[in-house]
Amino acid sequence: MRKTFFVVMLSLLSVGMMAQAHGPRGGYESERAPHSVRSHGGRHQIECATHDQMVLVLKTLDNQSFDDKKLEVGKLCVVLGHFCTDDLARMAKKFSFDDSRKQFLVFAYEYCEDPQNYYDLQDVFSFRSQFDEMMREVRSNKRRR
Fold first, then answer.
1. Chain centroid to CA 128: how far?
2. pLDDT of residue 116
3. Would you give the distance in Å from CA 54 to the centre of its chain?
4. For the segment 32-78, what is each residue's pLDDT rounded down to a tens digit?
């Protein structure tokens, strides 16, 4: 696991996914390389992670046997990379339980490149109540800042 984890982190760093920010989504928009744009549901969305980067991240999540380890790896990837809502949804689907998905997505919100699309994450959860709870926690965290 350590070798795979190291390879993922090295890959994320080497392809320029590291934020050059002083904090999540804070004041570095003009410093980053431009991202390609894809259409999603009639609106444009920033494509933050490349296909190869997502394959590597998803494979690493798949290699973790338990959700607690997936949560550790997922959080680290989110902090180091640039992910949009669609990318986070793909990552969250690798968790076995809605509660783990909720924890991951609440954490990831602060780092998400397009948080205005977080409502698109409803399909990630088995139960609508978990999605509603996640959104309440996200709103609550925003108010505390």
1. 20
2. 93
3. 10
4. 333 445 444 555 546 589 999 999 999 999 999 999 999 999 999 99
Measure Cα distances from 6 to 76, 90, 92, 111 in Å. Answer: 12, 21, 21, 21
As to burial, measured by CB atoms within 10 angstroms (0-12 exposed, 13-18 middle, 19+ buried), residue 43 is: exposed
Reported pTM: 0.72
Which H or E element spans position 37?
strand 37-40
Burial class of 124 by CB neighbour count within 10 A (0 to 12, 13 to 18, 19+):
buried
Kindly report the backbone phi and psi dihedral angles of residue 39, in degrees, each rounded to the nearest multiple of 5, phi listed first: -90, 140
Domain chopping of the chain, boundaries = 2-18+31-144
> Which two three-digit tokens encode residue 53?
């980067």
3-state secondary structure of 91: helix
pLDDT for 41: 52
Exposure on the CB side of residue 47, measured as CA atoms within 13 A: 11
SS3 94: coil
Residue 68: closest CA among 111, 106, 110, 99? 99
